[in-house]
Amino acid sequence: MIREVVLENVKSYEFERFNFTEGLNAIIGENGAGKTTILEAIGFALFDSLPYKISDFLRRGTKKGSIKIAFLSRDGREYVVVRNIAETGTSEFYIKDPEVGRIAEGKEVLQWVKQAFGIESDQKVFFENAIGVLQGKMTAQFLEPPSVRDRIFSPIIGIESYKKAYEKSREYENYISEKLTEVDKQIFGLEKELELKKEVEKEIEELERRGDQLLKEIKIAKKELSEKSKKFEEFEVLKKEIDNLSRKIVELQEKISFYRKNLSATEEKLEKIKKIEKRLREIEKDYREYVEIEGKLKEFEEKERELSKKSEEYLKRKNELYALEERKKSIFEEISEISKKEEKLDGLRELAKKEKGLAERIQKIEVAEAEFKQLIEQKGKAEKEISKISLRVKELRVRKEKLLKAVKSLEKLKGLEEKRDTLIKKLTEIESEKNRLKEELKYLKESICPILKEECDRISGKRSEVEKRFSEVEKLSSDLEKRLEKLNELYETKRKLENAAQKLSGEIKNFEELVRELESKKVELKNISAKLDELKEIVKDKELILKEYEKVKGSSEKLAGIEVLLTEKEKKMIELEKIGDSIKKLEKELADLQPDAEKYERIKDEISDLRRKKEVKKRFYEEYVAGMALLKEKSKIEKEIAELRINIKELEGQIERYKGDLSSKESKFDENEYDTIKKEIIELTSLIGNIEGQLESNKKTIDERKRKIEELKKKEIEYKTLSKERDSLKRKLGFIKDLREIFKLAIPEITKAYVESVSIEANRIFCEIMGDYSWELRWTEDYGIKTKYRGREIDFAQMSGGEQMCAAIAVRLALLNILSDVGIAFFDEPTQNMDERRRRNLATQLSRIEGFKQIFVISHDDTFEEMVENAIKITKENGVSRAH
Questions:
Q1: What pLDDT, in 10s, does the model give residues 854-865?
Q2: Measured distance CA(252)–CA(257) in Å, rounded
Q3: Which of left, alpha, beta for 434 (phi over 0: left; psi -120 to 50: alpha)?
């Protein structure tokens, strides 16, 4: 049972708290007031049902909102579900036990609620199609084709899961069949591979024999190679010694050559240094003059830096003086210009005053024109509305006359139901007598007593009497059936007249209001016309006033400009005085700075002359400095020459010693014998390599064939495993086929069982709501609704709107009772197409229906407000919904 709903920033609600009680709760209000929002909030928080985006559920202009719902669970304890929302979605979702705190969060909340309310199917689908069916869907779903109804109600009663299981089992059957085919293919392939096993084993034996033969051949070749290699190594040692001596001799000869080149270059360098030493003595005077000039130049540059600051200050003050004199001249010109304009001031004041008055009149005319244009649109709109309402009033007068005729026709048919019921009762009695006489005649024709069921020859008179009465009864039955047929036709006519009268009554309900509205619109049109005449007078002189205004336009701006200039004139006079003082001050400062500025110019000329002289002597200075650096290396070069001559002599003696050793070793070395042994070694090495290659190849082939044997052994195991798998798959395939057959047979039987249970409960509820137990309601296996009233079959589409609503409510309540322990139901605008009597009856009967702790009725009809203990009225002011 729902105890409380709290909404914050949800759609049209800022903050509102709703308290609900056990039994029938009514939520009353005008269309658009926010009644359905309460149902949507309950559906969203408890059952995750929301027919649009979460961002649209937030109150416009806010970034977050909240739904809190307090309810009693099946265990008798109270819990609170909280769902906080933002523009992007749910920000927080949890369920709270007031004693222990949070007990579930996120997706766990929905599972917990599902168990708490005893719902077995999808709770969102169950809510949308059973608990909280929105306005318009209550009856519409039962008018849909069977295929659409199946999609709606199968998930609710749980049949959808069986259908899905049936379809999934088909997929699984296909999967098993495909798997079995794949396993058969694998087994066939393995059988072919296993046939090769014996051939591979035979090939391994031959390869092992070949390997033994190759090992013998390689042993002989290696022995011969060892003997040849020993002799070859002796030659190799001798050859290396000869090559080493020859290389050393060449290296020493190259070294001597290198030292001789260095000696020649160093001697040339020494001669060059001696020439430079002579040149330095010649340019020493120029070097010393350069050094003296450089010293003087540094001294003068220091003085220049000191005087340059004073020179810059002098120039700065001179520029400032020039700028002030130019500004003084400019101000004199500006003051003269302002004085000329000051002479026109009095005339401009008169023109500006006239301009202001004309501008105010033009503004008034423009406002009047805008209002005139708006009133013209309003007049056209009012004329259209008057025309439209007049036409509607005329139509309603005609319909009113039709209604009166329909009411008179219905008066004539008053008491028709009683006559029809009496006739049906009489016809039933006649049919009963007719059947009894027919049974008696059957026995009398065979001379059997109809009472004792024995042969009797004294019943001939009785037979003629019964035949006569049977003939009379048959004729009476025929007459009564014809009368009943006519009464049924009249009853159908009456039902159509009632529907037409009800429809016409609703259509002309606003007739008087329309008449009053028509009169109001005519008065409004008259007022608009009067106002238009008044505005025409205001705008008639517009062109004349505009011409006058063009003559003086801009005078106010000119006047304001001159007044600003007069203020500027005073400021400029003050500025002129200040500029005079500044000029005097600058002239004094310039007189003080002028001597230093002149001295700065003279020293600049002297520095320029020194730099020119320095440039002339620069090349002698650089040549002298470079030459002195070379003179420092003279003694070092002389020492280097002596060392090179000693090294050359030592290397020449070493070469002579190496040549003697080389001649002795060359006499022991035989080139032909060396080449012969080398060739034989190469041939033996090649032979051994070839045999080793054959051995390696043979070993690899053996290893490969052994791996193949191992693989084939695995294939044997795989073959056995796949054979077992094939047997298992065959058993599974048989089982799935049997299971699918069970599902196929079970689905209609389960559907039938649920539908029958719902039908019995729905029939009870329907009769209670209708207040008439002559009705019989049946929910069909294709989820449609069939009814019977006093023996006459009535399809759901043939029922009146009120009867359809009562039947749909009965089925929804029955579904809730049979398929869950929710004990709560919501009905959004259930009184559509119902007359006053049936609305009151529905309100009374809903409060008496057994098996429900709480029923909510959402309606703009105030019938429920008068007849329930807990009624909440919703109003909407300035876009905000309130509960009263």
A1: 888 888 877 777
A2: 9
A3: alpha
